[in-house]
Write a structure and sequence with these properties.
46% helix; eight-stranded parallel β-barrel; alpha/beta; TIM Barrel; two-stranded antiparallel ribbon
Protein backbone atom coordinates (compact mmCIF):
# COMPACT_ATOMS: atom_id res chain seq x y z
CA UNK A 1 0.00 0.00 0.00
CA UNK A 2 1.19 3.54 -0.77
CA UNK A 3 -0.08 6.67 0.96
CA UNK A 4 0.91 10.12 -0.29
CA UNK A 5 3.94 8.58 -1.96
CA UNK A 6 5.08 6.69 1.15
CA UNK A 7 5.19 2.86 0.96
CA UNK A 8 3.53 1.19 3.94
CA UNK A 9 3.98 -2.26 5.41
CA UNK A 10 1.30 -4.90 5.07
CA UNK A 11 -0.13 -7.72 7.11
CA UNK A 12 -1.04 -11.20 5.91
CA UNK A 13 -4.46 -11.13 4.23
CA UNK A 14 -7.51 -12.69 5.80
CA UNK A 15 -8.55 -15.95 4.17
CA UNK A 16 -11.45 -17.56 5.98
CA UNK A 17 -13.13 -15.14 8.34
CA UNK A 18 -10.91 -13.40 10.86
CA UNK A 19 -7.23 -13.81 10.07
CA UNK A 20 -4.63 -15.03 12.53
CA UNK A 21 -3.21 -11.55 12.92
CA UNK A 22 -6.59 -10.23 14.06
CA UNK A 23 -6.86 -13.06 16.59
CA UNK A 24 -3.40 -12.16 17.86
CA UNK A 25 -4.48 -8.52 18.04
CA UNK A 26 -7.37 -9.39 20.33
CA UNK A 27 -4.93 -11.26 22.55
CA UNK A 28 -2.59 -8.33 23.10
CA UNK A 29 -4.97 -5.36 23.24
CA UNK A 30 -6.78 -5.04 26.57
CA UNK A 31 -10.43 -4.04 26.92
CA UNK A 32 -10.34 -1.91 30.08
CA UNK A 33 -7.32 0.36 30.43
CA UNK A 34 -6.78 3.00 33.08
CA UNK A 35 -4.72 6.10 32.36
CA UNK A 36 -2.56 6.32 35.49
CA UNK A 37 -1.51 9.44 37.38
CA UNK A 38 2.14 9.91 38.32
CA UNK A 39 2.46 9.70 42.12
CA UNK A 40 5.06 11.96 43.74
CA UNK A 41 6.58 11.44 47.18
CA UNK A 42 7.32 15.17 47.24
CA UNK A 43 6.65 17.91 44.71
CA UNK A 44 8.42 17.08 41.46
CA UNK A 45 9.87 13.76 42.70
CA UNK A 46 8.09 10.67 41.38
CA UNK A 47 7.36 7.87 43.83
CA UNK A 48 8.16 4.34 42.73
CA UNK A 49 6.59 2.59 45.73
CA UNK A 50 3.34 4.50 45.40
CA UNK A 51 3.23 3.76 41.66
CA UNK A 52 3.78 0.06 42.26
CA UNK A 53 0.95 -0.16 44.79
CA UNK A 54 -1.42 1.98 42.72
CA UNK A 55 -0.97 -0.18 39.63
CA UNK A 56 -1.48 -3.32 41.69
CA UNK A 57 -4.79 -2.02 43.01
CA UNK A 58 -6.10 -0.88 39.63
CA UNK A 59 -5.21 -4.16 37.96
CA UNK A 60 -6.79 -6.13 40.82
CA UNK A 61 -10.14 -4.37 40.45
CA UNK A 62 -11.04 -4.82 36.81
CA UNK A 63 -8.37 -3.30 34.57
CA UNK A 64 -6.61 -5.70 32.21
CA UNK A 65 -4.36 -2.89 31.01
CA UNK A 66 -2.71 0.25 32.38
CA UNK A 67 -1.43 3.31 30.55
CA UNK A 68 1.44 4.97 32.42
CA UNK A 69 3.41 8.09 31.49
CA UNK A 70 0.12 9.27 29.99
CA UNK A 71 -1.43 12.70 29.59
CA UNK A 72 -3.25 12.02 32.88
CA UNK A 73 0.20 11.16 34.25
CA UNK A 74 1.55 14.54 33.07
CA UNK A 75 4.00 12.83 30.72
CA UNK A 76 5.18 16.02 29.04
CA UNK A 77 6.56 17.18 32.42
CA UNK A 78 8.55 13.99 33.09
CA UNK A 79 12.18 13.57 32.14
CA UNK A 80 13.75 10.35 30.91
CA UNK A 81 14.65 9.17 34.40
CA UNK A 82 11.15 9.81 35.75
CA UNK A 83 9.62 7.83 32.91
CA UNK A 84 11.87 4.85 33.54
CA UNK A 85 11.16 4.86 37.28
CA UNK A 86 7.40 4.90 36.70
CA UNK A 87 7.30 2.23 33.98
CA UNK A 88 9.54 -0.11 35.98
CA UNK A 89 7.45 0.39 39.12
CA UNK A 90 4.23 -0.23 37.23
CA UNK A 91 5.58 -3.48 35.83
CA UNK A 92 6.56 -4.67 39.31
CA UNK A 93 3.09 -3.85 40.59
CA UNK A 94 1.10 -5.99 38.16
CA UNK A 95 0.94 -9.59 37.08
CA UNK A 96 2.45 -10.72 33.81
CA UNK A 97 -0.93 -10.93 32.05
CA UNK A 98 -1.67 -7.24 32.63
CA UNK A 99 -0.90 -5.21 29.52
CA UNK A 100 1.33 -2.26 30.29
CA UNK A 101 1.07 0.67 27.89
CA UNK A 102 3.70 3.39 28.25
CA UNK A 103 3.66 6.87 26.75
CA UNK A 104 6.79 7.48 24.70
CA UNK A 105 6.01 10.67 22.80
CA UNK A 106 8.88 13.13 22.60
CA UNK A 107 9.86 16.20 20.63
CA UNK A 108 10.56 14.21 17.47
CA UNK A 109 11.17 10.72 16.12
CA UNK A 110 14.64 10.29 17.64
CA UNK A 111 13.50 11.08 21.16
CA UNK A 112 10.33 9.01 20.77
CA UNK A 113 12.37 6.01 19.59
CA UNK A 114 14.68 6.41 22.60
CA UNK A 115 11.69 6.44 24.94
CA UNK A 116 10.19 3.39 23.19
CA UNK A 117 13.41 1.44 23.65
CA UNK A 118 13.52 2.43 27.32
CA UNK A 119 9.88 1.46 27.83
CA UNK A 120 10.46 -1.97 26.32
CA UNK A 121 13.50 -2.53 28.53
CA UNK A 122 11.54 -1.46 31.60
CA UNK A 123 8.68 -3.91 31.00
CA UNK A 124 6.09 -2.15 28.83
CA UNK A 125 4.16 -4.23 26.31
CA UNK A 126 3.09 -1.37 24.06
CA UNK A 127 4.46 2.12 23.32
CA UNK A 128 1.83 4.85 23.06
CA UNK A 129 2.68 7.54 20.50
CA UNK A 130 1.04 10.93 19.97
CA UNK A 131 1.98 13.50 17.37
CA UNK A 132 5.15 15.36 18.41
CA UNK A 133 4.55 18.05 20.99
CA UNK A 134 4.07 21.75 20.34
CA UNK A 135 4.63 22.22 16.60
CA UNK A 136 2.06 21.34 13.96
CA UNK A 137 2.87 18.80 11.27
CA UNK A 138 1.18 18.07 7.97
CA UNK A 139 -0.49 14.68 7.61
CA UNK A 140 2.19 13.37 5.24
CA UNK A 141 4.85 14.33 7.80
CA UNK A 142 2.81 12.66 10.52
CA UNK A 143 2.60 9.44 8.54
CA UNK A 144 6.37 9.47 8.07
CA UNK A 145 6.88 10.07 11.79
CA UNK A 146 4.63 7.17 12.85
CA UNK A 147 6.20 4.81 10.32
CA UNK A 148 9.72 5.71 11.33
CA UNK A 149 8.97 4.93 14.96
CA UNK A 150 7.02 1.78 14.11
CA UNK A 151 9.84 0.45 11.94
CA UNK A 152 12.33 0.33 14.81
CA UNK A 153 10.29 0.11 18.03
CA UNK A 154 10.96 -3.18 19.84
CA UNK A 155 7.34 -3.25 21.04
CA UNK A 156 4.08 -2.54 19.17
CA UNK A 157 2.68 0.97 18.97
CA UNK A 158 -0.70 2.33 19.98
CA UNK A 159 -1.38 5.73 18.49
CA UNK A 160 -3.05 8.43 20.55
CA UNK A 161 -5.29 11.13 19.09
CA UNK A 162 -6.22 14.08 21.27
CA UNK A 163 -7.92 17.21 19.93
CA UNK A 164 -5.77 19.45 22.14
CA UNK A 165 -2.59 18.40 20.35
CA UNK A 166 -1.12 20.71 17.72
CA UNK A 167 -1.49 17.99 15.10
CA UNK A 168 -4.61 15.86 14.83
CA UNK A 169 -4.53 12.34 13.43
CA UNK A 170 -6.90 12.47 10.48
CA UNK A 171 -9.01 9.38 9.90
CA UNK A 172 -7.38 8.86 6.48
CA UNK A 173 -3.94 8.98 8.08
CA UNK A 174 -5.00 6.46 10.70
CA UNK A 175 -6.28 4.03 8.06
CA UNK A 176 -3.06 4.40 6.09
CA UNK A 177 -0.64 3.66 8.93
CA UNK A 178 -2.84 0.81 10.21
CA UNK A 179 -1.24 -1.27 7.46
CA UNK A 180 2.04 -1.26 9.38
CA UNK A 181 2.46 -4.57 11.25
CA UNK A 182 3.81 -2.84 14.37
CA UNK A 183 0.85 -0.49 14.85
CA UNK A 184 -1.94 -2.29 16.70
CA UNK A 185 -4.27 0.22 18.35
CA UNK A 186 -5.53 3.79 18.59
CA UNK A 187 -6.61 5.62 21.71
CA UNK A 188 -9.09 8.07 20.26
CA UNK A 189 -10.06 10.83 22.65
CA UNK A 190 -12.59 12.01 20.16
CA UNK A 191 -14.80 14.42 22.00
CA UNK A 192 -17.56 14.02 19.41
CA UNK A 193 -19.77 11.18 18.29
CA UNK A 194 -19.03 12.08 14.67
CA UNK A 195 -15.29 11.53 15.07
CA UNK A 196 -15.77 8.37 17.14
CA UNK A 197 -18.12 6.87 14.56
CA UNK A 198 -15.82 7.81 11.67
CA UNK A 199 -12.80 6.17 13.31
CA UNK A 200 -14.64 2.97 14.20
CA UNK A 201 -16.23 2.62 10.77
CA UNK A 202 -13.03 3.42 8.87
CA UNK A 203 -10.99 0.86 10.80
CA UNK A 204 -13.58 -1.92 10.80
CA UNK A 205 -11.98 -5.05 9.39
CA UNK A 206 -8.45 -3.68 9.81
CA UNK A 207 -5.93 -5.06 12.27
CA UNK A 208 -6.28 -2.03 14.49
CA UNK A 209 -8.12 -1.93 17.82
CA UNK A 210 -10.00 1.25 18.73
CA UNK A 211 -9.95 2.23 22.41
CA UNK A 212 -12.27 5.08 23.34
CA UNK A 213 -10.57 7.68 25.50
CA UNK A 214 -13.54 9.92 26.30
CA UNK A 215 -15.68 8.57 29.12
CA UNK A 216 -18.83 10.28 27.90
CA UNK A 217 -18.50 8.44 24.57
CA UNK A 218 -17.71 4.98 25.95
CA UNK A 219 -21.21 3.51 25.64
CA UNK A 220 -21.77 5.08 22.22
CA UNK A 221 -18.45 3.72 20.97
CA UNK A 222 -19.03 0.22 22.37
CA UNK A 223 -22.39 0.14 20.59
CA UNK A 224 -20.62 1.19 17.40
CA UNK A 225 -18.09 -1.63 17.76
CA UNK A 226 -14.97 -0.26 19.43
CA UNK A 227 -12.63 -2.71 21.14
CA UNK A 228 -12.62 -1.21 24.62
CA UNK A 229 -11.98 1.87 26.74
CA UNK A 230 -8.86 3.70 27.89
CA UNK A 231 -9.71 6.47 30.32
CA UNK A 232 -8.62 8.33 33.44
CA UNK A 233 -11.76 7.47 35.40
CA UNK A 234 -11.11 3.77 34.83
CA UNK A 235 -8.40 4.23 37.44
CA UNK A 236 -10.82 5.48 40.10
CA UNK A 237 -13.66 3.07 39.28
CA UNK A 238 -12.20 0.18 37.29
CA UNK A 239 -15.04 -2.08 38.42
CA UNK A 240 -17.68 0.04 36.68
CA UNK A 241 -15.66 0.19 33.47
CA UNK A 242 -15.06 -3.57 33.55
CA UNK A 243 -18.77 -4.23 34.02
CA UNK A 244 -19.64 -1.73 31.27
CA UNK A 245 -17.39 -3.46 28.75
CA UNK A 246 -18.39 -6.97 29.85
CA UNK A 247 -22.09 -6.08 29.54
CA UNK A 248 -21.54 -4.62 26.09
CA UNK A 249 -19.68 -7.71 24.92
CA UNK A 250 -22.61 -9.87 26.11
CA UNK A 251 -25.07 -7.60 24.33
CA UNK A 252 -26.68 -6.74 27.66
CA UNK A 253 -27.23 -3.09 26.87
CA UNK A 254 -29.58 -2.48 29.79
CA UNK A 255 -26.78 -3.37 32.23
CA UNK A 256 -24.27 -1.44 30.14
CA UNK A 257 -26.42 1.66 30.39
CA UNK A 258 -26.63 1.32 34.17
CA UNK A 259 -22.85 1.20 34.56
CA UNK A 260 -22.46 4.01 32.05
CA UNK A 261 -24.77 6.16 34.18
CA UNK A 262 -22.60 5.50 37.22
CA UNK A 263 -19.50 6.49 35.26
CA UNK A 264 -21.23 9.63 34.02
CA UNK A 265 -21.98 10.68 37.59
CA UNK A 266 -18.27 10.35 38.31
CA UNK A 267 -17.49 12.20 35.05
CA UNK A 268 -18.94 15.31 36.66
CA UNK A 269 -15.58 15.46 38.45
CA UNK A 270 -14.32 17.20 35.32
CA UNK A 271 -16.99 19.89 35.72
CA UNK A 272 -15.86 20.91 39.21
CA UNK A 273 -14.85 24.60 39.06
CA UNK A 274 -11.08 24.87 38.80
CA UNK A 275 -10.38 21.33 37.57
CA UNK A 276 -9.60 22.65 34.11
CA UNK A 277 -7.37 25.49 35.26
CA UNK A 278 -4.19 23.42 34.98
CA UNK A 279 -2.97 19.87 34.45
CA UNK A 280 -1.99 19.89 38.13
CA UNK A 281 -5.57 20.61 39.18
CA UNK A 282 -6.89 17.88 36.88
CA UNK A 283 -4.40 15.31 38.18
CA UNK A 284 -5.07 16.33 41.78
CA UNK A 285 -8.79 15.70 41.35
CA UNK A 286 -8.01 12.20 40.07
CA UNK A 287 -5.60 11.63 42.94
CA UNK A 288 -8.27 12.62 45.48
CA UNK A 289 -10.51 9.93 43.98
CA UNK A 290 -7.70 7.39 44.27
CA UNK A 291 -7.07 8.45 47.85
CA UNK A 292 -10.77 7.90 48.55
CA UNK A 293 -10.34 4.32 47.34
CA UNK A 294 -7.40 3.91 49.71
CA UNK A 295 -4.99 3.31 46.85
CA UNK A 296 -2.88 6.46 46.95
CA UNK A 297 -1.57 8.36 49.96
CA UNK A 298 0.94 10.64 48.24
CA UNK A 299 -0.86 13.64 46.71
CA UNK A 300 2.17 15.83 45.94
CA UNK A 301 2.13 17.39 42.46
CA UNK A 302 4.43 16.73 39.53
CA UNK A 303 4.79 20.52 39.17
CA UNK A 304 6.20 22.18 42.31
CA UNK A 305 4.21 25.21 43.35
CA UNK A 306 0.74 23.78 42.86
CA UNK A 307 -1.38 24.31 45.95
CA UNK A 308 -5.06 23.36 45.65
CA UNK A 309 -7.49 25.80 47.19
CA UNK A 310 -9.50 24.39 50.11
CA UNK A 311 -12.78 25.11 48.29
CA UNK A 312 -11.53 23.15 45.28
CA UNK A 313 -10.71 20.09 47.37
CA UNK A 314 -14.01 20.44 49.22
CA UNK A 315 -15.94 20.49 45.93
CA UNK A 316 -14.16 17.37 44.69
CA UNK A 317 -14.72 15.55 47.98
CA UNK A 318 -18.41 16.53 47.93
CA UNK A 319 -18.83 15.08 44.46
CA UNK A 320 -17.08 11.87 45.49
CA UNK A 321 -19.45 11.63 48.45
CA UNK A 322 -22.40 11.92 46.09
CA UNK A 323 -21.06 9.40 43.58
CA UNK A 324 -20.46 6.63 46.13
CA UNK A 325 -17.47 4.85 44.64
CA UNK A 326 -17.30 1.05 44.56
CA UNK A 327 -16.28 -0.78 47.70
CA UNK A 328 -13.67 -3.52 47.66
CA UNK A 329 -16.01 -5.94 49.39
CA UNK A 330 -18.59 -5.49 46.61
CA UNK A 331 -16.01 -6.33 43.95
CA UNK A 332 -14.84 -9.40 45.88
CA UNK A 333 -18.47 -10.52 46.23
CA UNK A 334 -18.90 -10.19 42.46
CA UNK A 335 -15.82 -12.35 41.88
CA UNK A 336 -17.02 -14.92 44.42
CA UNK A 337 -20.42 -15.06 42.69
CA UNK A 338 -18.74 -15.61 39.33
CA UNK A 339 -16.85 -18.57 40.75
CA UNK A 340 -19.98 -19.93 42.44
CA UNK A 341 -21.88 -20.16 39.15
CA UNK A 342 -18.94 -21.65 37.32
CA UNK A 343 -17.83 -18.58 35.37
CA UNK A 344 -14.44 -18.70 37.03
CA UNK A 345 -13.74 -15.08 36.16
CA UNK A 346 -15.39 -11.92 35.01
CA UNK A 347 -15.59 -11.61 31.27
CA UNK A 348 -13.43 -8.53 31.00
CA UNK A 349 -10.12 -9.93 29.74
CA UNK A 350 -9.23 -9.90 26.04
CA UNK A 351 -9.58 -13.08 23.98
CA UNK A 352 -6.58 -15.38 24.40
CA UNK A 353 -5.09 -17.40 21.56
Amino acid sequence: MVYQGIPLGSRPPAECGRCLVQEMLLAIVPRVVAAVVSPCREPGVVGADAMERLCHEMSSHGCDGLFVVSSTGEAVLLDEGDRRVLVSAARRGVQDDIHLYAGVTGLGAKQTILYANNAAADGANVAVVMAPFFLKLGQRELVEYFLRVADVSPIPLALYHHPRMSTTIDVETLVAVAAHPNIIAIKDTSGTTERAKAVIEATRGLDLAVLQGSEHLSLFSLRAGCHGVLAALAGIAPEWHAELVASARRGDWASAEQFDQQIMRLWRLFEVPGVGDSISAFAHAIKLGLARRGWLAELSPVVPGFAPAPEFESAVESLLDHVKLPHDRDWQLRIDQAHAVGEGHLEVAPVRV
